[in-house]
Design goal:
With 297 residues, the protein is α+β, with helices and mostly antiparallel strands. It is built from twelve helices and eight strands. Bound molecules: zinc ion. The site of zinc ion has 6 residues, from strand 6. The site of zinc ion (ZN) has 6 residues, from strand 6.
């Protein structure tokens, strides 16, 4: 009997690992052939918006290309020393580098009474130079996956609990520096300029693929993309496990399918934000997204 049980668990793990390693394989492929994959991704993105029948102003991390082509082989240690243009080419009253294209977020309130509920989105940007203290999201095996050190222990706990259930919550993208976000965003702007868009149009178009620097929860180290960057992640047992258990560790599905009109971000089943156990459970029970929970929607 015990032997059958072990075999069953091994089978579950094998399937789980195979599902997750598909992303690793894709990542490798993407590095080798990023240009080709970029076109694919653009089309996928467009077809998703067509299918959803909504006007998409912002995607968060729907662009696997942007993620993968930037994640490797570059590391944060190296990227920090890379010179990044910080002087705005065009400025406005707000001073935000991309204000020329209509992006003028206010500063996020970092002194909110509960840091776990810091709101970072298209309207609220992290303070200039903000960088959280970081820690590995998983104790071993994923050395380059970081979260805010106040969040990482909860991800690690969730990871271990899921693993015991035969669920492998592979961390795909955690903390990302604003500098790296800037490079991703600039690269995407240039891509659209090459396609013949004006600079303003190219910037607005780029923002439909990746959030402008400083406005992503990844820049704050508060969110993790898990296992996949595909919408069909919702069909996996990993997603099912997260929906059932993530709140017990303080994580919420940040961009639900039925809240796109509020979040302005497409359904992202892979993006899980830490808000603390109490708030996560309340949001899970009420069905509210973070903006609603904070009374801002
Ligand atoms: Zn994400």
């Amino acid at each position: 009997m015990k032997k059958y049980f072990i075999a069953a668990v091994a089978g579950i793990l094998a399937v789980s690992l195979a599902a997750c390693s598909a992303d690793d394989t894709k990542s490798d492929r993407t590095e080798k052939n990023s240009k080709k994959h970029t076109y694919t991704s653009e089309r996928e993105s467009e077809s998703k918006s067509d299918y959803l029948g909504i006007e998409l102003t912002f995607h968060d991390e729907t662009d696997t290309v942007t993620e993968h082509e930037t994640d490797a082989p570059e590391t944060e240690k190296h990227t920090e020393s890379v010179e990044v243009p910080t002087k705005p080419e065009e400025t406005s009253d707000s001073g935000y580098k991309y204000a020329y294209a209509g992006f003028e977020p206010a500063y996020a309130d970092m002194n909110v009474s509960d840091w776990r509920l810091i709101l970072v989105n298209r309207d609220y940007i992290l303070p200039d130079g903000y960088k959280p203290e970081l820690a590995n999201a998983v104790e071993s095996g994923f050395d380059d996956m970081y979260l805010d050190e106040r969040v990482a222990p909860y991800y690690n706990e969730m990871y271990k609990a899921a693993y015991e259930d035969g669920i492998h919550l592979v961390p795909v993208s955690g903390y990302r520096s604003v500098e790296r976000q800037t490079r991703n965003f600039e690269r995407k702007i240039n891509y659209y300029i090459d396609q013949g868009y004006s600079k303003v149009e190219a910037t607005q178009e780029a923002a439909t693929i990746i959030l402008p620097p400083g406005t992503s929860e990844h820049n704050a180290g508060l969110a993790m993309d898990i296992c996949s960057l595909e919408q069909n992640f919702e069909d996996t047992k990993e997603f099912e496990w997260l929906c059932e258990n993530a709140a017990d560790y303080g994580f919420i599905l940040r961009y639900p399918e039925d809240k796109q009109d509020i979040t302005k971000i497409i359904y992202e089943p892979w993006h899980w934000r830490y808000v603390g156990v109490e708030a996560a459970k309340e949001m899970k029970a009420s069905g509210e997204c973070l903006e609603e929970y904070l009374g801002l929607a």
